[in-house]
Amino acid sequence: MQFENSIDFAKKLDEQDSLKHFRDQFYIPIVNGKESIYFTGNSLGLQPKTTQDYVLTELEDWANYGVEGHFHARNPWVSYHEIFPESLANIVGALPEEIVVMNQLTVNLHLLMISFYRPTKKRYKIICEAKAFPSDQYAFQSQALLHGLNPSDVIIEVAPKNGAHCIQTNDILDTIKLHGNETALVIFSGVQYYSGQVFDMKSICKAAHEVGANCGFDLAHAAGNVSLELHDWNVDFACWCSYKYLNSGPGGVSGAFIHQRHIADTNMLRLAGWWGHDKENRFKMEKDFQPIPTAEGWQLSNAPVISMAAHKSSLDIFQEAGFHNILSKGKLLSDYLFFILKDINHSTKNIIEIITPENPTERGCQISMLMLQDGKKIFDALMKEGVIADWREPNVIRIAPVPLYNSFEDVFQFGKIIKGFIEKTN
Fold first, then answer.
1. I need a surface site. Which of 1, 212, 233, 234 has the fewest CB within 10 A?
2. How far is 333 from 194, CA to CA, in rounded Å?
3. What are phi and psi of 159, to 5 degrees?
4. Does a structural domain hold residue 417?
5. Which residues of the chain have pLDDT under 50?
6. Could you list the residue range(s) of the whole structural domain that residue 288 is in?
7. What is the pLDDT of residue 1?
8. Mind listing the pLDDT tens digit for each residue in 118-144?
9. pLDDT value at residue 346
10. Are the beta carbons of 47 and 27 closer than 8 angstroms?
């Protein structure tokens, strides 16, 4: 498509957008008396207008039924988590029995590493990206310590080459091959939180398995954002949060994936809890753990229903919109934003360096802008103009137009504000 940096062109794209009506299903924050341009769905997605009703339903049933709500609520609580795998299967590319919704993201990461990071005297290393999200770094370090190992001996980080911002796939694959005999686990983000780079998860997983290592992914910035095929890629495990692109509320419940070839392995070590125990015998309260032969076997506690109600309200919108349609619009929004930023650079002093890959297969909604001049001033100016973006030290502005509630006019107006500030101050 031949893009144009004009309001008329942006409005034309919005008129042709089959998903434009979904914007009305979300609360858009008001800044300076008007709807903001909300570009931080990569950090916290907006609230669907149905969320309050979904949560209120559970509160009413709690009031009316008390403990009997576990069996007699409109959505019985004892089986509440079972409504999610079908909805999420298409979003993460998995079989329903490979998915469970439980806990929060880093809790699930630890639970899965207990099962899939099993270091031996020979195989003990973890290969990951340099500067992964801090919570992941802490998890890797503490898992090494849990096994009595020194994290500096265990963790191998693959970094961008000098002067680059993204990690080359070949560098990842070469690192896996180089350390293969000593590697127990290869674990990367699906989308790198700082740069917005989408990793080649299929190739990484294949390389890990070729050297005899397990492979997992933190999909916090990928789930609901990019196309995933976890089952077909043969990924051993993955986990994700629900509060970014899945719009399920701050600290919302997390999802986990365990590949079909592992879920019925009762000998696999895991931390056990009663909600992962065989459903038929769960309430007999017997002492010997019998894991459910699906991803549910990794559950510890019963479902956090209030949080899950918020999750359901968003996933029902995903179901209505169709995830393939969401992905298509997301790609077009990202392409248009890339075009707008490059156009601004052509007409100004090139003070924006886009560190997110230009290749559409290597990015999702997020584009990260390395500000070479006046970065914080530009960020503050955006906020004053009602653009809610995200600042990352030392000088990066992250923005993510989300297909369910952002418009092409949002992208144009964002570019107009930045260009106006640059021209005014230079």
1. 1
2. 19
3. -115, 160
4. yes
5. none
6. 53-319
7. 86
8. 999 999 999 999 999 999 999 999 999
9. 86
10. yes
Q: What is the pTM of this model?
A: 0.96
What the block records as the tokens of 68 is: 């009997």
Say what the pLDDT of residue 247 is. 98
Strand-pair category, 237-240 with 214-218: parallel
Q: Which residue, 319, 345, 370, sits at the end of a domain?
A: 319
Q: Are residues 399 and 275 in the same domain?
A: no
DSSP state of 6: S
Q: What would you report as the CA-atom Rg of the chain, rounded to the nearest whole angstrom? A: 23
DSSP state string for 330-375: HHHHHHHHHHHHHHHHHHTT--EEE-S-SSGGGB-S-EEEEESSSH
For every residue of 186-218, DSSP letters joined together read: EEEESB-TTT-BBP-HHHHHHHHHHTT-EEEEE
pLDDT of residue 189: 98
Rounded to 5 degrees, what are φ and ψ at 146?
A: -55, -30
Q: 240 and 107 in contact (C-beta within 8 Å)?
A: no
Cα–Cα distances (Å) from 405 to 47, 316, 330, 336, 410, in that order, read 10, 15, 11, 16, 10
**Which CA distances in Å does 8 have to 15, 38, 251, 409, 421?**
10, 21, 39, 9, 22
Closest CA to 199 of 402, 399, 361, 335: 361
Number of domains comprising the chain: 2
Structure token digits, residue 372: 């070479």
d(CA 227, CA 231): 12
Distance CA 363, CA 191 (A): 8
CB 223 within 8 A of CB 246: yes
Which pLDDT score, from 0 to 100, does residue 87 have? 96
- Please say whether the beta carbons of 38 and 50 come within 8 A: no
**CB contact at 8 A, 88 and 224:** no
Considering the domain architecture, whether residues 339 and 372 belong to the same structural domain is answered as yes
